[in-house]
Amino acid sequence: MHQDVAANFNPKPILENNQALQLPSLLGDRFREFSNASPVIGFFKLFLDPFIVVATLYALAIPFEVTVDGYGFIFAVLAFLLTAVLLDGVFLFVPGYSRPLLGLGRFVLEWISVLLALFLIGRISGFHTYIYPEYFFAWAIIAPLALVCTHLLFRLFVLHPDKQDIKKVIIIGANKPGQLLAKNIQENSFLKMNFLGFFEDRDTSRLGDINPEDIIGDLKIFPEFVNKNNVQQIYITLPMTAQPRVMALLDHLKDSTASIYFVPDLFVFDLINARFDNVAGLPVIAICESPFLGLNGVVKRISDVVLSILILLLIWPILLAVAIAVKSSSAGPVFFKQRRYGEDGQSVLVYKFRSMTVMEDGAKVTQATKNDVRLTSIGGFIRKTSLDELPQFINVLQGKMSIVGPRPHANAHNEEYRKLIKGYMIRHMVKPGITGWAQVNGFRGETDTLDKMQGRIAYDLDYLRNWSVWLDIKIIWLTATSMFRDKNAF
Q: For the whole prediction, is pTM greater than 0.70?
């Protein structure tokens, strides 16, 4: 029975907002520079924005007659790191580019989060007493204004479309990739493209939800249309099985000066961070890849370290109190250590406060259930409130875990479910997390049926498709606010 269910299970994306970002990253450098993997956004995010913030800090030191050394230097380093981590995307490039006020509102919230993080770290460590208040408040106002001015200048002189630079574009094939490509072109003016329409042989009734006015004609007339209308870019989105048709189309276009691009229909695959790359000079397509490679990996690690240190500074009294309660309530060690799958399926030792009278870590591990007799007198409480997971922030600082990611299962459960659920092991291409997208969406606690585990895995894979620092922060917030009211935790 389990085998039949697993054979029919195919995890699908739950968050739809990233679909518009997936395809452009597959189309080469032209779109890629404005996608999530963008070197332009990466430059702003990790270098230029933090540099402007720190440069403003040093510039204001002159009129305020402040020497930026010692604690001032530490403050500057923290400001640089927090800007890189918490300003998650230049406001010009977030969804809603055509509505700059929406992006500006998000930018304001991001900057407030930077200031709050600096304030909390300063209060906890005590270095805030060494920072001149008027100097800090002036910087808190002038730094974001400097960022806004820089971004607006970039938008005005770099992204502002010149009519002579706008390319005329047609798409051959009104299938799902073609429609998504057209949608992105129409919504993103900085691409400097004018979408003229589709060429399609099929009847409009077979094309789904598409505006018939967008269909220019069939494939017989497109060569003449290209020449008469000075079309500069042609995107072929026909299925990969239609190779003879594609070759015939290319023959018709040999008398044209238009640039020609082939868009493979990769929607037949279950994509995880799909993108184009090259290996030893040969083009390759990444169908399933960790989202934390390269720049994203640096951002993820910085955010893990910064947030872990901040959280540990805040919760150390709670850690001490729980440790004392565990030790005094039952015989046994304070910590429970269990081998679980880490990044790339490698075994890692995960720390937890001991909540049971047993220390299972073998070939068979029984999941905790409601009113489990193995729970200690305080075990049920610390499990329900997730206090037993707090030592895993040490695992995060060690680099073995992340704050947010797919929750690690006991190795015995991995071996069981990898045989039953398609795509189960994909979740192990990244570091496991203390909390995850599945846990804040109702899949925390016991997975006593295959359907529950399938739902958890679907959310884990969706997290890999849609990762961002702000999604991590959202998950952390939802975890913190649901600690005492999750009915699935026991």
A: no
